[in-house]
Design goal:
Elements lengths: L1 H20 L50 E2 L9 H8 L6 H4 L5 E3 L14 E6 L19 H5 L4 E2 L13 E2 L2 E6 L5 E6 L13 H12 L14 E2 L2 E2 L1 E4 L4 E5 L22 H4 L11 H5 L15 E7 L3 E6 L5 E3 L10 E6 L4 H9 L4 E4 L5 H8 L6 E16 L10 H10 L2 H10 L2 H8 L6 E2 L23 H10 L24 E7 L3 H16 L3 E7 L1 H10 L4 E3 L37 H14 L4 H17 L3 E14 L2 E2 L13 H4 L6 E2 L1 H4 L15
Parallel strand pairs: 2-14, 3-15, 19-20, 19-21
Antiparallel strand pairs: 1-2, 4-5, 6-7, 7-11, 8-9, 10-11, 12-13, 13-15, 16-22, 17-21, 17-22, 18-22, 23-24
């Protein structure tokens, strides 16, 4: 509109000039206009980025506590269990509750609870859209995500509730109840809880820790969540000395690497049952690594677990029922063995949107609002009188960047692949993509209203370390994008609107790039469609592909992708918890992965690595903030990925649930199932009949 108005004003001005001066005399024909010189296009300068005013504003001020109000380890005078389990003790099915618990169990104090100690009974109904591969979590098999993995596993420490701490940004003790640094900071001695039992009654021992570390994490043949290289600092391996039944020492090549404690958390150091898995491992008589990986198939129930609930029923891709673990090692201050709820169920479906639709319909008790296309419908449904759930909004953390495959060799199978990799590695092309994106327009195309806004990429605004002045924000400027593409040598040689390569092995061919999106993360498709249209406006043809999770994962691992729309991970929201994911520190870094040949780093990548390594080893928060400011400046200035839009995750939870931590975010270090500390959630007796248990009175039974 502004341009049209200016054109009209200029036209009127010309008419006035002609009227005042008259037409040129006939005997004096107008001179031929001089040939115009092509002036170089001046690129649009970066513009300041501003904080947004997205709706929701968070789920309320987070209630924070000192560590002693969140976790304690001590013996209590007496212990209690659900009434139905008293009968199982009486008939000899179970030992008394005090014999099933450790001598000093973990106690969740009342002062750290939002609603106080609860009552037994009730069920949490949830949803999973990922296939349950099996129960060997140490070999990277997934149990179905969506909370199932979190329930099934326990680690040395628990980083999920770190947002609740008022005293430090550090993980909570878990199965490792305490740790102490040596005077020089080169060693960290951990003390394991005594007397913890697996769900089949077998004791947790130091052999479980040793087996997890040596035969899984450090074994390159096991596809564990953390690779051996991730347990190196400056190329030197981290080691463990095992002392006795309950103490072991970490040995580090640098002093006080406090960040590594976050690597002892969920998945990173999920403890495996040696008495179950060891016979299947090739180092201990097993057949081979493939057989080891699949040694605990999904229908082999119940699996042996340290978690609060254990799967007792599973109908493939349909339904899962999990019942309370009678050997769970946490209690409240009254001595009530946790969890409070007896049962958790998971309906299986094809897409995560099914969880949201189930919550709207009343058959599911929780969903993470992560697909913006559902925001309007969900908020409307929440306001209806019969809605059984409420919605709380977390910090700005839901970002959707466009990533470029920067690997020079990995996954390169043709001259076309090689030419595209060279193009992606040229900062002028990445800047051209950034200039071509009307980010606020993309936000409105994904969902109308104030739910999303433009974002240049890098660290998200909800992060503790986010410095808005560090953002290099290239504005929407198709003219700048076109100028950079022309500078790269591209030209529309046949007039069809698509640029052509003018040199090299692809000379004469059109500039066509594949863009992968996710079938499950629907918003990546909306972003991909909008970005494709905007890039075509500057002559870049996009071939968008919607891919299922396994195929998408294979392409990422094999390097057979070109560009992709992703959803930002925790490393952009809580950088210190996953600092090695921030850049090409490890060979497995996603957008610059190393294959059979060594990587060739871009110039700025080496400085990124230096900043990240310093950040990982920095114990002072103020200095960490300074390092992240430099990191974000390098990242956004070089368009390491091209940001598109940012929004908030929403947390929809059943109103009948009690003890949800105040201000609990749906997405932080972990997802909802870790953040809400589910073992301490409860349902009032008068609300338990609203959703009856599927298998009341049952516990896991092992042969």
């Amino acid at each position: 509109m502004h341009r049209l108005l200016m054109s009209a004003v200029m036209l009127l001005a010309c008419l006035f000039v002609l009227a005042a001066c008259g037409a040129p005399a006939a005997e004096e024909p107008a001179a031929e206009p001089a040939a115009a010189e092509t002036a170089p296009v001046e690129l649009a300068a970066p513009v300041p980025y501003e904080f947004g005013t997205l709706p929701g504003g968070g789920s309320g001020e987070v209630a924070r506590y000192p560590l002693s109000d969140l976790v304690q380890y001590r013996a209590l005078d007496e212990y209690h269990q659900p009434a139905f389990m008293d009968a199982l003790v009486a008939d000899g099915t179970l030992p008394p509750v005090e014999e099933r618990l450790p001598p000093e169990p973990m106690v969740i104090p009342t002062d750290g609870m939002s609603d106080g100690p609860g009552v037994y009974g009730g069920v949490w109904r949830d949803f999973s859209a990922v296939q349950t591969e099996g129960w060997n979590l140490c070999a990277r098999e997934t149990q179905g995500w969506f909370g199932i993995n979190y329930i099934y596993s326990e680690a040395l420490v628990d980083a999920a509730p770190v947002f609740m701490r008022s005293d430090d940004f550090a993980p909570l003790p878990n199965l490792a109840k305490s740790w102490e640094w040596s005077e020089d900071g080169m060693q960290l001695t951990m003390t394991l809880m005594e007397g913890v039992k697996w769900s089949d009654g077998a004791p947790l021992t130091m052999e479980d820790i040793r087996f997890t570390w040596e035969d899984n994490i450090l074994d390159p043949n096991v596809p564990s969540w953390k690779t051996p290289t991730s347990w190196e600092i400056d190329g030197t391996p981290v080691t463990i000395d095992f002392h006795d039944d309950y103490t072991f020492t970490w040995n580090f090549p640098v002093a006080f690497p406090v960040q590594k404690i976050f690597d002892m958390d969920f998945l990173d150091f999920t403890i495996c049952p040696a008495h179950v898995l060891k016979p299947h491992h090739p180092a201990h008589g097993g057949v081979d690594y493939e057989a080891y990986e699949t040694s605990l198939p999904p229908l082999d129930l119940p699996p042996v677990s340290l978690g609060p609930w254990v799967a007792v029923e599973y109908k493939t891709d349909e339904f899962m029922v999990m019942r309370r673990n009678p050997y769970y090692w946490k209690v409240d201050e009254a001595g009530n063995q946790l969890p409070y709820m007896n049962e958790v169920t998971f309906q299986k479906g094809e897409s995560g949107i099914g969880r949201t639709l189930g919550t709207l319909g009343g058959s599911i008790d929780h969903t993470n609002l992560e697909n913006p296309s559902t925001y309007i419908e969900t908020t409307k449904r929440m306001q209806e009188e019969d809605a059984h759930f409420y919605v709380a909004w977390g910090p700005e953390a839901l970002g959707f960047p466009i990533e470029f495959n920067l690997s020079l060799n990995h996954g390169v199978e043709s001259e076309r692949d090689a030419s595209l990799r060279d193009l992606f590695r040229d900062v002028r092309f990445r800047k051209a993509v950034a200039y071509a994106l009307d980010r606020d327009g993309i936000a409105q195309s994904v969902v109308r209203g104030p739910f999303l806004r433009g974002f240049p990429g890098g660290i998200v605004p909800g992060a503790v370390e986010f410095d808005i002045d560090s953002v290099v924000n290239y504005p929407y400027s198709p003219e700048s994008a076109s100028a950079l593409l022309a500078e790269l040598g591209f030209e529309d040689t046949n007039g069809d609107g698509i640029l052509n390569w003018t040199s090299g092995p692809l000379e004469g061919e059109e500039l066509i790039i594949g863009l992968n999106t996710s079938e499950d993360a629907a918003a990546t498709q909306g972003v991909g469609e909008a970005a494709s249209a905007l890039l075509r406006d500057v002559g870049v043809e996009i071939n968008m592909r919607v891919m299922q999770g396994p195929a998408l994962g294979d392409a990422n691992t094999n390097g057979t992708w070109e560009m992709r729309v992703t959803r930002t991970g925790q490393h952009y929201l809580t950088p210190f918890t996953r600092c090695t994911d921030l850049g090409p520190v490890t060979k497995e870094f996603g957008i610059h992965r190393e294959g059979a040949e060594p990587r060739v780093l871009l110039d700025f990548e080496q400085e990124l690595i230096d900043v990240i390594n310093a950040f990982c080893l920095e114990p002072n928060q103020a200095k960490r903030n300074e390092l992240m400011s430099r990191y974000n400046e390098l990242f956004t200035g070089n368009v390491y990925h091209a940001g598109t839009i940012i929004g908030r995750y929403g947390l929809a939870m059943a109103k009948r649930f009690k003890n949800i931590p105040i201000g609990s975010p749906p997405f932080f270090v972990h997802w909802t199932w870790g953040n809400v500390r589910p073992e301490q959630m409860w349902i009032a007796e008068e609300d338990q009949d609203l959703v009856p248990e599927i298998r009341p009175g049952e516990i896991p039974v092992y042969n």
